[in-house]
Every structure is written in C-alpha cells, then in structure tokens.
Amino acid sequence: MATIREVSRLAGVSPATVSRVLNGTTPVADTTKERVLEAVATLEYKPNAFARGLATNRSGGIGITVNQVSSPYFGAFIEGVEQVVRAAGLHLMVSSGFADAKAERDSIEFLLERRCDGVVVQAEGLSDDDLIDLVQQGPAPVVVFGRRIAEIEDRCVVTNNELGGALATRYLLDHGHRHIGHVTGPLSYPDARERLHGYRRALEAAGVAYDDRYTVESNFLEEGGAQAVARLIARAPELTAIFFANDQMAAGGMRTLREAGRDIPNDVSVVGYDDVFLARYLTPTLTTIRQPLVDMGRAAAHLLLERLGHVGREVVRRFDPELVERQSVARIAR
Amino acid sequence: MATIREVSRLAGVSPATVSRVLNGTTPVADTTKERVLEAVATLEYKPNAFARGLATNRSGGIGITVNQVSSPYFGAFIEGVEQVVRAAGLHLMVSSGFADAKAERDSIEFLLERRCDGVVVQAEGLSDDDLIDLVQQGPAPVVVFGRRIAEIEDRCVVTNNELGGALATRYLLDHGHRHIGHVTGPLSYPDARERLHGYRRALEAAGVAYDDRYTVESNFLEEGGAQAVARLIARAPELTAIFFANDQMAAGGMRTLREAGRDIPNDVSVVGYDDVFLARYLTPTLTTIRQPLVDMGRAAAHLLLERLGHVGREVVRRFDPELVERQSVARIAR
DNA sequence: TTGTACGCGTTATCAA
DNA sequence: TTGATAACGCGTACAA
C-alpha cells in the first residue's frame, strides 16, 4: 500500500499538497493538481483510514443497532440506511440489541467506542430517558428509529401509527363492518397505544360506539394473536372483523379462526399491520398496513448526515403508512 | 476522552506499562497492574481505535458482503457471523452486493479500503476466478459463503446440496411417490446443479428411472416456479409430487397447482428448499430442506478468526441440511 | 519488571 | 500557492 509520502515524491510536491488535492481543503494550482492525481492513480494510492481518523477524529463510519438483523422488518430498514450511508462514502457498522436493555446499551457503547461518527438506534429495552440521555450527552449524533420522544423529537424517525390504526379500521367500516375487534400489542409500547387510538378515533368518526369487550391486549407474537382471538370470539361472537396491531398476531389469529370454523374473509375479515414478508403468503393473503421502511432508513441516515455537516436536504421524520389491499377482507352483506 | 498518557500519570507509571496491562503482551507486576486498572476505571479510559489501528495495522473489524441485507435468508447468516465476531470483541461492517459483479467488486473493495481485518463474501455476480484471485491475492483473509470452489475449498462454507436434493427426493419416494418432478434453479449455479444430482441419485438408488421430461429449469423466483409447474403438468400430468430447488419457486408452483384444480398434498405433494420464513406460512405449510444458516454464519466467522490468529477451534465447513417435515406431502395410495 | 523514544500516515498550523 | 513541521494516541524495540 502506497503512502502519501510516496505519492508526494512521485509528483514532486510535499505530502501536504497531496492531502490538499485529495481533500479540497485549500486551492492548489491546476498543473500541480494534475501531477498529483496522476501519481495517485499510478500508485493506486488509498488514504489510510486510521491515520486519517487519528488526524481528523472522524471515522467515516455510521453505526446502527436494531433488535435483530435477521428480521425482515429491520432488514428493510437497514437496507435504506445503507443506501444513503454508502452513497455518502461512509460505511455501516451493525450491532444487534435483541430488545434487551443491557444488550442494547452494550451495543451502542460498542459502536461509540469504535468511534462511529453517528449512530442509528432502534431500541426496545432502553427507556425514553436512556435515549434522551444518549442523544443529549452522547459523544456522537444519534437518531432514533420507531419511537417518538417529545424531548428529542427532531431526532426521531417514526410512522404515524394513529393514522395506520385509523386507516385499517376505516377500511373495515367502509366494507360495512360494525363489529370490529382489535388485538393490540403490549400497551406499554407507544406504537401499540397509538394504533389503538387510531382504531377508536375511526370508530367514533363513523358513529360506532367503542366497546371495550372488542379489544384484547396481546404481545406482537403469533401465539399471542392466536390466544387473543380465542378470547375475543368467546366473548364477542358477533364480531365480523378483527384488526391486528401486527402481521404476526394476524397470522396466529387467522389460524384460530380457521380452527373455530370461521371462514376468512367471509365470516370474519382480517387486517394486519407492518406488511412483513409473510403477509403475501398467508391464506388468504393479508390486507395490512405498510410502513415505508426503506424510506425510513434513508431518512434516518439523512438526518444523521445532516448533523455531520453533509449537505442537508429537507428530511421527513414522520411517515404516513398506507393500506395494502389483499384478500383478507370481504364486504359485509347489509 | 482520556488518553493512555493521562491514565499513566494517574497510575504513576509510563504509558508503555498501561499498554502492556491492557494488551497482556508483557508480564506486569501485580501491584502496578492493579493501580493501572484502577486508573483505567476511574478515567473510563477507552483506547483510541485509530491510534491503535495505526500502530498495529489491524482494525478490529470484519467485513461482510451479501446480496441483500433485507433478505431473511442472508439476515440469518449475518446474524451468525455477528454473534461470533462480536464475542471476539471485533465489529462487523456490512455492505450489499445485489448479485451484480460490479457492485460486488465495489463492495469488497470498499470494505478492504476500510482496512477490515477479514471479509466474508457471499457473491453471485463474481466468477469463481474472481473469488480465487481475491482469496489468494487479497490484502486480508477472505471466506466465501455458499460456493464450493475447488482451488480455495478450505475457505468455503457450504451446504451439501446434493444431500439436500437426495433427502427431499427420498422422502417423497418413502411416501410412495414414483412420478416425481423437479423444478431446478438456473443450472449455471452449482447449488442448482448439485440439488439436481441429489434428486437423480435418490431416484436411481430407489430403482426409479430418471425421466428428463420430469425436470424443468427455472430461476429461483416465485413467478418462475409458477411457470415451470404449468409446463410440467402439461407435459407430464401423471406427476404426483414435485421437488422445488427453493421455497420461493415452491410458493409459485403451489399457486399454479391450485389454479389447475390440484389439491396439495392429496393430488400433488410438494417439497421445497431453504426453509425460509415463508415456508411456515404457505397453505399447506411447506415441507422443505433447511440449511443451518446461523451455524454457517458462525462457522464462516470462526474460519476467518482462525486466520487472524484467534484461537482456532475445529471448524466445520460443509454443513448437512435436514428435512423439515410439514404438511405439503401426502402418502400415496398404492 | 519498567521506562524512553520512535514510528505508524494523515491533517492542520504556520511561515514563506 | 506551497512546504516544513507539529500534532493525533497507541504499540513496541531497546535499554535499563
């Protein structure tokens, strides 16, 4: 590997000048610039990332921590982040948090020790206060994905969950349903609460009274969805539709419905949330709410780059989900 | 951020001694060691990764490039790699190749420029020769995932595709099937060829003649599977079972079968390959061949660490797939 | 067992 | 517009 000194010798200039040509920090005469670039080319010179980091105190790396790399949900998000980070000539360091506060803390610390210039955090174990601390005290800019925290709202990339809940519910109402159940996620999660609010808001807007027998709290897991539906249909057999706060629970719930002899969508219509991979493969295919994850990843990256002094374009921080129409909802006979 | 010099001052020793304590390179008296560690703790000293890299010429980073981060298939593999890399105190840099030779080349170069200590490569665009070159000439150790290349076999982590193909076929034979079709992947891919060999071998072993009307080449995509099945049942309506070289094609093929009025599994049994996420969500759930992706990721990482002088445990480089029994295969009436 | 002093390759400051 | 030169923070011969 050639060094800057060898390049400078070949070009007949000082190392400083080579650095100036490469970084564009100071004007350099056109003729010398040419000579330098030629020398760079013939020696296939690549700046040493360590030396550069030592001198500038910047690594050219962005860190990202998510629950689990192998989840298609987070995978799509990471993909968006990578696109932008890569296009900016930076690189991405990943680290998993596994929805556990300690692991998440370790993960973030790990990335920060590696002197990432900025970090994208998706965390479920850490508290809001932890994240506020991190954003406000941390040694590098931080962007938070999937949590809306008032104190650091300008660093949060989120979707409008309430709108998502309302979209799902309104779609069912539009198909004539009036007895609509809702299986929520853990209500300790803001996402779950907001989707519930959206559900209620849509019902009210349509003049349908909210009945709390129609709502069951669950856990965002397939098995939880299955159990929740069992309770729901025992308690309120008149339901003709169920809105699930994520697709996994919808998958479990659909299984229970089928086992109970209810046809989907003709006896009971179903709407999910997230549009993860499996939604297209359920039978019937699942009508669900899609979050623009790749776009959100791109936005998170842009938000970070903005803080790092890259040219800032306007960044959207709150994304509107949209409904993906498939075959799990039927129009009800009046 | 504290430096090694500040630590040394607080502990009343030289910077060199601090370095020795932290790296364990040279014996240090117990009492001084204690003083140093105490100073490290109170100052919350973290070594500067750049300075360390500059001095040692190692980054403490492992690079990985895969087709697409958001695919659950590669996600699982990445997860395995991350587990091991992280446990070794190193970090992971990811970069996507998108099955395109140029993008893959860029990706790898990018990682190497960032001075990764080693790189895990999953590539579909690059030729065998490209990879051999990279492994033999590259500036850092390289491990290849999912391709078996004779010249660099000790750097390849693969599954036994032929065994997988045989497992699938034998399972169908055991269920009484004698007219078994096979939808292959692109036969330019070794994976696809090997699975086909496994299929033929199992047929021969059972004394069933191979009939080339029963084999259709396709493209590993859902749509391709759908079209392949259309051709297959037109040409050989007597088929009672089909083995697909991946799950995506099986999903497409099942759709075609259903549209043609064939019940699965009672009219036609189906076996897939990969056990990706969707296999559990098809109707009926898909019997398929599972590759131990997380384990393979771990193995790839271990193989790399071995080259980097970490304690080498015995590493398995060739993994046996296993059959996952679900509901897409029925016993045939004799 | 410990300390001194140099080198790693770059960028930034200052002077010319 | 350019060149010397001093950081940046660590590891490691070499000497003690």
Question: Overall 3D geometry of chain A?
Answer: elongated
Query: What order do the strands of the largest sheet of chain A run in, or round the barrel if closed?
Result: 2-1-3-4-5-11
Largest sheet of chain A: 6 strands, parallel
The CATH first-level class of the largest domain in chain A comes to: Alpha Beta
When the domains of chain A are counted, the total is 3
CATH topology call of the largest domain in chain A: Rossmann fold
The separation of the N and C termini of chain A measures 77 Å
**What is the number of helical segments of chain A per DSSP (H or I, 4+ residues)?**
12
CATH level-four homologous superfamily name of the largest domain in chain A: Response regulator
Major protein interface: A-B, 42 and 42 residues
The ordered H/E elements of chain A are HHHHEHEHEHEEHEHEHEHEEHEE
Give the mean pLDDT of chain A: 91
Question: Into which percent range does the helicity of residues of chain A fall?
Answer: 40-55%
What's the CATH architecture of the largest domain in chain A? 3-Layer(aba) Sandwich
- The oligomeric status of these chains comes to homodimer
Q: How many distinct beta strands of chain A?
A: 12
**How big a fraction of the residues of chain A is strand?**
5-15%
Tell me the structural class of chain A. alpha/beta
Mind explaining what this structure looks like?
- The structure is a homodimer of 334-residue chains.
- The first copy, chain A, has 334 residues and is α/β, with parallel strands linked by helices.
- Chain A folds into three domains: 4-56, 434 Repressor (Amino-terminal Domain) (Orthogonal Bundle), CATH 1.10.260.40; 61-159 and 294-319, Rossmann fold (3-Layer(aba) Sandwich); 161-292, Response regulator (Rossmann fold, 3-Layer(aba) Sandwich).
- Helices cover 45% and strands 14% of the residues of chain A.
- Chain A has helices spanning 4-11, 15-23, 30-43, 49-56, 72-87, 101-113, 128-137, 161-174, 190-205, 222-235, 247-259, 293-307, and strands spanning 61-66, 91-96, 118-121, 142-145, 156-159, 180-184, 215-217, 241-244, 269-271, 288-290, 318-319, 322-324.
- In chain A, helix 1 packs across helix 2 (15-23), helix 1 (4-11) packs across helix 3 (30-43) and helix 8 (161-174) packs parallel to helix 9.
- Chain A is elongated, with a radius of gyration of 26 Å.
- The model of chain A has no long low-confidence stretch (mean pLDDT 91).
- Chain A binds chain B through residues 1, 46, 48-51, 53-54, 57, 59-61, 68-72, 75-76, 78-79, 82, 86, 91-96, 110-111, 113-115, 139, 251, 277-278, 281-283, 294, and chain B through 1, 46, 48-51, 53-54, 57, 59-61, 68-72, 75-76, 78-79, 82, 86, 91-96, 110-111, 113-115, 139, 251, 277-278, 281-283, 294.
- Strand 2 (91-96) of chain A pairs antiparallel with strand 2 (91-96) of chain B, so a sheet runs across the interface.
- Chain A binds a DNA duplex (16 and 16 nucleotides) through residues 3-5, 13-17, 19-20, 23, 25-29, 32, 47-48, 50-57.
